[in-house]
Amino acid sequence: MPRHNIFAMPFSRVYPMYVQKAERKNHSKAEVDEIIRWLTGYDQQGLQRQIEREIDFETFFAEAPAMHPNACLIKGVVCGVRVEEVEDPLMQKIRYLDKLIDELAKGKAMEKILRQ
After folding, report:
1. Which of 30, 39, 75, 97 falls between 20 and 30 A from 19, CA-CA?
2. Which domain holds residue 55?
3. Which alpha helices (H) appear in the chain, and where do they start and end?
4. What Gene3D superfamilies does the entry give (predicted)?
């Protein structure tokens, strides 16, 4: 199976785009960070450290302390792809994050985004 280009892309290059997307819809960087921390198990210092290290997506998710057990409840379509049907585990994690940021930008309540 071919390796996706996004796997080698620095997380720190995409992270500002997540923040911009949220801010365009009157949401904050803090909310984006909360979503990322919920999904990956990073604390705020750990998340900031990963951004500063400019690691790629593959490393970002490989070093994540623990994917949230409710991540499997993330369903829906992002970029024309149904996230629950993505076969590659790393690509699915990336799509989960994309979907959560999309939900924030669309104004969904944080409790629902975090599957609480």
Report:
1. 75
2. 5-111
3. 11-24, 29-40, 44-53, 57-62, 89-105, 110-113
4. uncharacterized protein sp1917 domain
Q: Is the dihedral of CA 80, 72, 34, 48 positive or negative?
A: negative
25 domain-assigned:
yes
Number of domains in the chain: 1
Identify residue 53 by its one-letter amino acid code.
Answer: R
For 18-71, the pLDDT digits (tens) are 999 999 999 999 999 999 999 999 999 999 999 999 999 999 999 999 999 999
Q: How many CA atoms lie within 13 A of 58 on its CB side?
A: 8
Question: How many Å apart are CA 61 and CA 68, to the nearest integer?
Answer: 12
Cα–Cα distance measured from residue 104 to residue 99, given in angstroms and rounded to the nearest whole number: 9
Please indicate, yes or no, if residue 116 is contained in any of the structural domains.
Answer: no
In 3D space, the residue among 69, 19, 72 whose CA is nearest the CA of residue 47 turns out to be 19
* CATH assignment of the domain containing 83: 1.10.8.290
